[in-house]
Amino acid sequence: MPDKSFIANITKARGFDLNLLLYFEAIYAFKSVSKAAKLLCISPSAVSQSLTKLRSFFSDPLFVREGSGLVATTVAENLHNQLSSGFGQLLNSLDYFKDTATKNKFVIHSTPYAAMRILPKLSAEILNEKLNCEISHISTDGLLDTIEDALTYRKADLVFDTRPYYNFSTVVEPYLVERIVPICRKDHPRLGTSLTFEEMALETSTLFNTGSQNIKRTQKDIMDFLGERNFFFSSSSVIVNAAIVENSDVVSFVPVWFAEKFASSFNIKILDCNFCQDPVTMYITYNKASLKSPHFQELLTILNKHKEI
């Protein structure tokens, strides 16, 4: 006997083209009709027509132009919040049933630093074990990219980020923790082997520019301990900040792994600092539906061997 509420929901949806919700989510993800059309492999005019139908149905513009992009209205934001979890699960299920047995190419989203930290060991073991597996890494910007878009729209199979993303359709776990240390160039004219509150007050700094609340919390802890810093340069790249440090008399705070590994390459030194801040946690996030793939489980087994928590 069919569930009565299920039948009632089908009756309510009768006459409404559910494809319109797919177009809506694509526009919401890219804030662009043309980019949504490219993703869906249809013409921009077809997407525009679908948006017109949605506007009529919800009696709301849904998206308004601001600069070169589109901004979601309150109605669109609420609609997306209602759709995102269930819609993501639906897309994941379709992807699984389409190609469960043969998929062995995986896309990993992470910042360049996270990739440098994690992927060499993963790649070496894949090659040593002769697994039939192909890895594609896509660099993300810690300021702009969102884990939700990467996983919901299948842009990535795995995401490594300092921002945890919790959702009914995803798994998120701590993967490694990083202690942050101050560095300067080896021949810095004023700093020897340590960094004190008084010394920091006389120095300029680089800032690691990121959208991660975890890293921002650490930056606040540093400020609470060493006082307000005079920032000369900011970048979303640890590597770029280190390059600035080795060529100028500034101080930067970087992960200890990076500092120890590249100290000689960048002509930098680690400064002792009587500062015990909480380490920064990096998380691994993936869709639950991916666990149904034996190839993905093999990949996850290798990754779990190298967890540092």
Q: What is the CA-based Rg, rounded? A: 24 Å
CATH topology of the largest domain: D-Maltodextrin-Binding Protein, domain 2
Give the H and E element order.
HHHHEEHEHEHEEEHEHEHEHEEH
Number of spatially distinct domains:
3
CATH homologous superfamily (4th level) name of the largest domain: Periplasmic binding protein-like II
Strand coverage percent: 15-25%
Unreliable stretches? none
Provide the structure class.
alpha/beta
State the shape. Answer: globular
Helix fraction bin: 40-55%
- The CATH architecture of the largest domain can be named as 3-Layer(aba) Sandwich
Number of beta-strand segments = 12
CATH class of the largest domain: Alpha Beta
Average pLDDT confidence is 86
Taking the sheet with the most strands, its summary is:
5 strands, mixed
Distance between the termini: 50 Å
Number of helices: 12
Side-by-side strand order of the widest sheet: 4-3-5-12-6
Briefly summarize what is shown.
With 309 residues, this protein is α/β, with parallel strands linked by helices.
